[in-house]
Amino acid sequence: MSDINEQKKLASELAAKLWAMANELRGTMEAYEFKNYILGLIFYKHLSDKTEAFLIEAFEHDEMTYEEAWEDEELKEELADDMLESLGFVLEPKYLFPNVIKMVNADTFTIDYMEEIIASITESTIGRDSEEDFKGLFEDMDLKSSKLGRELKQRGKLIGRILKQIDSISFEMGGTDVDILGTAYITLIGNFASTAGKKGGEFYTPTNMSKLVARLATVGLTDVLSAFDCACGSGSLLLQVGQFAKVRKYYGQEKVSSTYNLARMNMILHDIPYQNFNIINVDTLENDKEFEDEKFTVQVANPPYSTKWSADPKFMEDERYSPYGKLAPSSKADFAFVQHMIHHMDEGDSRIAVLLPHGVLFRGAAEEKIRKYIIKDLNYLDAVIGLPANCFQGTSIPVCCLVFKKERNGNSDNIFFIDASKEFVPGKAMNYINDEHIDKIVNAYTKREDIDKYCYKAYMDEIEKYDYNLNIPRYVDTFEEEEAVDIAANKQKLAELEAKEKVALDKVNSFLAELGL
């Protein structure tokens, strides 16, 4: 087994151990509710590990311990500044994970102490560049909740048990090619999403779908100045972009505050320096003030399908929507997300890969006008890819991936269609695509050559002929001819069977007559 495969195996094993721990400890609490405690405490352990790694380097040539340095006011101030510059936060000696575990083992750990640790981490960032990245980061880990126990002592016991279980699992995986803890963390988020039904789809895109979208968005790129997801959920899709190109800075918008916190944790846990990401908590479609002047190289997204939005007439003055002459309908915001993303495309070779319901391909009225403007006036739509049904949490509908490019590289006279709807592995609860399916889609997209019943290059005159309706079966003929039926032969066979039936029936009647029946 290759080193990378071995590391992926370790990540899978780590995720399985963490998931087993979550199920063992959650008691009567729903897994979806318990996720904030498990993910939050794993994140705290990660911050402690990062602090210890920093200290090993800081004290490499000194015999002094962290505790001793912290007692010296001058050294303490210098050390805190270095930690804030490098890590973005400070974790005092007494709050390091191993010291807390000692308290758990000595039965002196309390829920109040855990709250003290969290407050200390957050307060250490106030007035620093990392303040916004840590502000409210742990607020969904409600340590006062009666679901942890009616009494303070019970809550402390449960949190202590979680900490002890986390301590029993080895996280020693530095220097590997695969981000093992980060990969395990995303797998764990996926496990929690699968138990949350429709809610799970709000914060998680299945890993292989994320991989497909990221690969389509980065074809031919090795260096990405900025990557952006306008509905970033837990940040897992955004982080996938970094698996296929070097990303200088990550940007994200997320409406749900608890999911926004999860996205920031996910970034830090994947060792993305706080200076290299900017995730904000905002209703993307209604308020773009903070990012209104930002332009991005690569954009990926899996926005909520056909969600409602205000479609307030005032947005006809918003430069994200005004060029189209129409707003997306209030009952279906799909094109509003597309318009938002197109507005944020950088000059040059900027791209978008976005997952959307098939309705965007053919629905009429305002959506038809927006679709026509994108194709005819902007000419940014590069590919339409139909994906299998039942591949996402909370919905069984088939989804498509639209790829937009500002620089069409000689393809401005066509749009490439792929029908990958039959390319999947069936599962019990959901279907999924594997690496072979992803390779097939990406290779077809890259080559842009017709393959019978799979992909087709449609030129603009053909698309215009269909009134800019992009319904995939119009372009990719997947009809399978049935074998011709030989009516004469079937009639002959039927006659022979009827004759045999008559002989058998005559025999039965003869036997019955002999028996006097």
From TrEMBL:
One GO process term, biological-process aspect: methylation
InterPro entries for this protein: D12N6_MeTrfase_N (IPR022749), DNA_Adenine_Mtase (IPR051537), DNA_methylase_A-5 (IPR003356), Restrct_endonuc_T1M (IPR004546), SAM-dependent_MTases_sf (IPR029063), T1MK-like_N_sf (IPR038333)
EC number: 2.1.1.72
Source superkingdom: Bacteria
Transmembrane stretches, start-end: none
Catalytic reactions of this protein: a 2'-deoxyadenosine in DNA + S-adenosyl-L-methionine = an N(6)-methyl-2'-deoxyadenosine in DNA + S-adenosyl-L-homocysteine + H(+)
UniProt KW Glycoprotein keyword: no
Ranges where the N6 adenine-specific DNA methyltransferase N-terminal domain occurs: 14-165
Molecular function via GO: DNA binding; N-methyltransferase activity; site-specific DNA-methyltransferase (adenine-specific) activity
Keyword entries, A-Z: Methyltransferase, Restriction system, S-adenosyl-L-methionine, Transferase
Domain named DNA methylase adenine-specific: residues: 178-483
Catalytic class of the enzyme: transferase
Pfam families membership: HsdM_N, N6_Mtase
Protein family: Belongs to the N(4)/N(6)-methyltransferase family.
Protein name: site-specific DNA-methyltransferase (adenine-specific)
Lineage: Bacteria, Bacillati, Bacillota, Clostridia, Lachnospirales
